[in-house]
Amino acid sequence: MVDVQASLDAIAGRPALAQAAEQGARLVDLWPLTNAEHLANDAKYAEDLQVRISMVLAQLMTGEDVTIPDAEYVYEGAEDIPGRPQDLVDALMAANDAIEAAAQAQDDQSKTLADLAETLGSGWDQARQQDVAAGVAKAEQSLDGQNKSPESSRGKEGVAQALAASLEICRDLLQRAGADSDHAAAAAPVLVYVNELDERLGIPRAFLSAEDVIHALGLLDDPEAFADLLAPLVGAEWDHHRQEVLWDPEEAKRKAKEDDERKSREALQAKFAHVPEDPNKPPVQL
User: What are the start and end residues of every segment in region (Disordered) (predicted)?
Assistant: First the structure.
């Protein structure tokens, strides 16, 4: 019989997971946020994250080239976009509905995931639904009795364990859902569920592009390769999240001004670099 904890420990100990865990621990250490500017920055990040995730879900659902402006427009309430296919807009609306429903779900996670699959048009047949439900029950049972508060994952070891669990649950559910590069839409409900699972595990939500997801779907039979691919992407998103929270508009203006002045000096030096020095020019007295 496979020792589940030993498998998770092996994944959590991989270099890619260790690096991502350090990035995650730096982000989690910021909480609880008390600075008003940081709280506002985090709220803005959460909105941007939903826009980006809805874009990816719609890409997986339709196979079309969905853009950030498309996703922003629908997030802000649009029900049609001039010159854009209606099925793309419908997919974005469904993606936002699914994200918001998952965030509000409380009890039966198997039913939640089945509802997400229906909302997102995953194409799961009855057998897939039953297999995914069994996988969710298994995942939820493995989490029972664990301390899943954010404090339990504050250190990098805790983040590594939580991320390893998240990735393994994600991989298992994607397999059960029958997701692959030809059936990428089947992955969409799982991705929404796992992002909410991360919240319960005490680690921040993550973001994967549609290309990242499709690449990962080719690695479902190899737990280590799957983890090695996704962990750095998750870690990079966590670094981005931290930078967004700590962003200081005044400091950004100061740095931008310094950069502009430096570029102007460099351009001026380059312009006159070919002009020879006048040997008869008197020295400047300082």
Answer: 135-158, 249-286
DSSP 3-state of 145: coil
Cβ-Cβ contacts under 8 Å for 30 (sequence gap 6 or more): 38, 242, 245, 246
The H or E element that residue 176 is part of is helix 156-177
Q: Where are the alpha helices (DSSP H) in 15-85?
A: 15-28, 36-62, 68-75
- Per-residue model confidence (pLDDT) at position 286: 47
The two structure tokens encoding residue 115: 């509802």
Tokens representing 37 are 């500017």
Backbone angles phi, psi at 146, to 5 degrees: -85, 155
d(CA 211, CA 144): 33
* CA dist., res. 166 & res. 148, Å (int): 12
Q: Exposed (0-12), middle (13-18) or buried (19+): which is 82, by Cβ within 10 Å?
A: exposed
**Tokens at 219, concatenated:** 């690695």
- Weakest mean pLDDT among 50-64, 72-86, 112-126, 243-257: 243-257
- Quick one: DSSP state of residue 51? H
Q: Domains of the chain (ranges plus CATH)? A: 22-260 (1.10.3290.10)
- Percentage of the chain beyond pLDDT 90 is 74
Per-residue model confidence as pLDDT tens digits over 37-46: 999 999 999 9
pLDDT tens readout for residues 206-227: 999 999 999 999 999 999 999 9
Element (H, E) at 12: helix 4-12
Q: Whole-angstrom Cα distance, residue 245 to residue 30?
A: 9
State the pLDDT confidence band at 255, using cuts at 50, 70 and 90: low
* Confidence (pLDDT) at 17: 97
Task: At 11, give phi and psi (nearest 5°).
Answer: -70, -45
The answer to whether the beta carbons of residues 12 and 223 sit under 8 Å apart is: no
Q: What is the pTM of this model?
A: 0.85
